[in-house]
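Hi R.,

As promised on Friday, here is the backbone we talked about, encoded as structure tokens. Could you run it through your design pipeline when you get a chance and send me back a sequence?
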């Protein structure tokens, strides 16, 4: 590892300092601060409209924060405030509903291309994209890892929700990213697929990929995830250790209804009281 890589490996995955994001004339994230260290697997929980996807798009550079009044940098990812999006995508694998929508609405996009184009931070292969045998080999490994090899040859538009999700996971893993940013990754998966997927994530977490999981569902928070962030109305409601944050009062405040929480070994569940 050279000095540059060393600095990247030890830098916080995310350091957001008082960032605000506007969409149209609405303030969607309001003076939001959050730090996630390298290796600190984290779940971000919030009700519909709390600002979770906006936060994901802030991290992936699809949205930008307003210029902060304090003069400091509002946001750093892997210790840097400036990134070429393609370099960032090499370090941060992303699975999100908007990516799935884009990939599955392109009628001619095939599974192999959906994975290989990730090497170029693109959604399709272009004439100037030179796919090497090593890339093809790595794509095959990532498809295997995501349980999606049997889908090769299919168009993305023809896949079921769960099948398309597996391909997107392969696409996210193809770079061996340092971190995975997963926005509602289990939405639309059946019980068995969800369990397989979560077990797969646990393996990645144990082997050094930092997980950043955005979800509505307490049940999806894996034992490896020890930090939980609660979001409400575009603001950080609480950030802390899982047992301190996954409590009835705090989840009731997050979802605006009385919630009771149960612990089952290393997992938690929550229901409306
Ligand atoms: N382009 C936009 N213009 C105005 N408001 C927007 C725009 N995009 C998002 N919003 C609003 O920002 C708020 C946060 O949206 P966001 O998608 O980040 O929430 P979320 O927590 O991901 O919700 P969900 O769980 O329903 O996916 C919502 O109230 C939404 O209506």
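Update: got your reply. Pasting your designed sequence below so it's all in one thread:
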């Amino acid at each position: 590892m050279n000095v540059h890589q060393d600095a990247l490996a030890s830098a916080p995955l995310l350091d957001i300092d008082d960032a605000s994001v506007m969409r149209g004339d609405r303030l969607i994230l309001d003076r939001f601060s959050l730090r996630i260290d390298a290796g600190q697997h984290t779940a971000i929980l919030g009700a519909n409209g709390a600002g979770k996807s906006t936060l994901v798009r802030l991290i992936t550079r699809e949205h930008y924060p307003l210029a902060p009044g304090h003069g400091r940098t509002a946001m750093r990812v892997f210790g840097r405030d400036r990134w070429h999006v393609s370099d960032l995508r090499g370090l941060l694998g992303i699975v999100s509903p908007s990516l799935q929508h884009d990939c599955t609405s392109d009628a001619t996009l095939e599974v192999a291309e959906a994975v290989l184009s990730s090497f170029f931070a693109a959604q399709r292969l272009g004439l100037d994209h030179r796919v090497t045998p090593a890339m093809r080999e790595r794509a095959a490994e990532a498809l295997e890892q995501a349980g999606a090899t049997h889908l090769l040859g299919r168009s993305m538009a023809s896949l079921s929700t769960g099948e398309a999700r597996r391909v997107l996971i392969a696409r996210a893993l193809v770079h061996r990213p340092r971190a995975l940013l997963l926005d509602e990754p289990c939405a639309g998966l059946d019980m068995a697929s969800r369990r397989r997927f979560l077990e797969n994530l646990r393996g990645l977490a144990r082997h050094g990929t930092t997980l950043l999981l955005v979800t509505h569902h307490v049940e999806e928070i894996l034992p490896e995830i020890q930090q939980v962030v609660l979001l409400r109305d575009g603001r950080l409601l609480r950030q802390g250790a899982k047992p301190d944050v996954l409590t009835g009062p705090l989840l009731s405040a997050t979802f605006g209804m009385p919630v009771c929480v149960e612990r089952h070994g290393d997992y938690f569940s929550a229901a409306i009281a």
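One thing I noticed while checking it: The chain is about 35% helix and 25% strand.

Thanks again,
M.
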